[in-house]
């Protein structure tokens, strides 16, 4: 059966479409089938069809996510059960280099290979099976599997879905939109590359860290700063060099962005172009999904998360951490309010009920970046350096989703969100830098600590159930529904 006939059949039987999405995502992730199946092409074609026929974006994302998680899980346990027999099974008995490439990739990247492998075509279907063969702990695999599947679903679903929606709605992109889009993507990947470099090269085992320690030691004042801010958790106190570099970088970018927004005419060309695009791709199903996402950054929910995490710190007797969360909350509120009042920039004028306050920066984005980033940093510090990235990635993903939802709901401009991300990252880096000398004891994870993520998820579900209808109405556009 050809791909065209599969697509034609699904087009004639739309009740099976979502199962087809699940089956494609599932099959593409399987160790053997995924090697011979051009799943990326089929997935893209299905997403174009989904956008063109106005299937629910939320449903398509969920079924893609579930399929990807299930496929990798099956591959993992296949590798765990048949680990010694796999080299003799077809097709690996004829193509042993596939296993060799997968094993080399896993040896090089360790647990990160599960995440990286999601987006690397030649080895992607093999990595989960290799992880199972090498007895990677199930809990660690499942965590990375779920986190990476979120990013995979978004990256694989949205481009095709948007193209399909553009075909259905006859969207005309704003002038120079392609150049803006690709410039933004390049800058985003450049920022991610810088973050990865910082993550890999600025911990105490690396030569750059030792060089910076030598530089600080050459001056009495700098040496005092180094020792005062070093964390006393180990015999050789470690200086929070990544936090310092992150603070300096984000501060420079933040100041540059603020001066640019103040200098240029408002809204920026990028702001208006993205707002015009949001107008054309907005649908009722998309509105529902965007409201659910933007609720992650609501102050009431974030305060609830901060309260739960403070309770966790009380149980762990990390009282300095509670003071830090309170100080960060006050600082974030003060800076956001001060910037809004100083710039007095107007929001996009599309909502039935005008939002109170000014636009610049996005408070939801600042709050999501600060609270999720701070919680992630507290949890990540208890792990070895090479195992911390899933927490940071998860926090960054949540902040980006909240920021993107603010733009697509037309309650903020793109420039507001960029400022919010930079300001939030700056506050987190400053908080970690100041907290370092008080970071004396480990949180010592226990099995019963799983109550925290469970309580956070239940808290969001409860908030969504109680507040969604009111939030939905708050973001209604003029003359849209």
TrEMBL record:
Keywords per UniProt: Cell membrane, Membrane, Transmembrane, Transmembrane helix
TM region(s), chain numbering: 16-49, 55-78, 142-167, 179-199, 239-260, 289-312, 319-339, 359-379, 391-411, 417-435, 447-466
SUPFAM superfamilies according to UniProt: Acid phosphatase/Vanadium-dependent haloperoxidase (SSF48317)
Membrane disposition: Multi-pass membrane protein
InterPro entries tied to this protein: DedA-like (IPR032818), PAP2/HPO (IPR000326), PAP2/HPO_sf (IPR036938), VTT_dom (IPR032816)
Gene3D superfamilies in UniProt: Phosphatidic acid phosphatase type 2/haloperoxidase
Subcellular localization(s) per the UniProt record: Cell membrane
Main location: membrane
Record keyword NADP present: no
Domain of life: Bacteria
Pfam family, one: PAP2
Domain Phosphatidic acid phosphatase type 2/haloperoxidase: from-to ranges: 320-432
PANTHER family: INNER MEMBRANE PROTEIN DEDA-RELATED, INNER MEMBRANE PROTEIN YABI
Protein family membership: Belongs to the DedA family.
Protein name: Bifunctional DedA family/phosphatase PAP2 family protein
Organism: Litoribrevibacter euphylliae
